[in-house]
Amino acid sequence: PLIDQHRHQLTVTLPPKPIWLNADASRLEQVVVNLLTNAAKYTQDGGHIWLSLQEEGWDCVLRVRDTGVGIAPELLPRIFDLFTQAERSQDRSQGGLGIGLALVQRLVEMHHGKVEVHSSLGQGSEFVVRLPMLLTAEAQSPSSQTEMTKQTGPSLQVLVVDDNVDTAGSLAMLLEASGHEVRMAHDGPTALEAALKYRPNVMLLDLGLPGLNGFEVAKRLRQQPVFQNVVVVAMTGYGQEADRQRSFDAGFNHHLVKPADFGKVQEILATVSAKATRTDSPDKQAV
Q1: What residues contact 273, with CB distance under 8 A and at least 6 apart?
Q2: Looking at the chain, which terminus has fewer C-beta neighbours within 10 angstroms, N or C?
Q3: How confident is the model at residue 146 (pLDDT cuts 50, 70, 90)?
Q4: What is this structure's pTM?
């Protein structure tokens, strides 16, 4: 719909014969959708988008190229970080939160592949996904399917709180792709209700929430004994020392500044999982 809305010309080039992959079709579909959506957002009305698929050596290579506004050189190293506000368009209404690209990178890496970007301001962008091919159309073994979805430590219950519905949904998809159970809330009061009902191991909490801000949500959580050991992570655009201190004073365990590297989130979750593994009592909150 976005491509039609902006009257983009879409050119699709496919190989003459199928390419076989050891892959999760729904997750690869999400990769393609996110890359095409990203291209459509940052390509002017009437522009051109190319999607191609081909074999290169032992790799299946997917390319999505556009004639859009391009990416500034200083942004390129962070383009796959969480919440990267892409300074690629004067029209901020188009969006720009980079969780979609962070999800692309995570899903590609789960398939033992890699994704890279080539771009210059005013000259469009090209995203290249490389995935290892199967030599034949052999069936996937159960072990390979398990390996694709494995994570470090047990699955955690994570509550994502952000008033931007798209941001929360994309982050939830990233976490689910990493093997965790996720619930979402979009304002302060709902976050407290969800925490009481869901009893999460970890909360990823935006600070600028309607109803009650993130600081107040954290303070009220810490007033209840059942939430003393829940790991609460601030997700914010403010990174001064005073901002960090205010977070810790309110009861946050971690303070991540947007754009945040999803690897940092994974490190926090891995630490929580490791502690959960050592927790013997099922009645004790695993942190």
Answers
A1: 151, 152, 153, 154, 156
A2: N
A3: very low
A4: 0.70
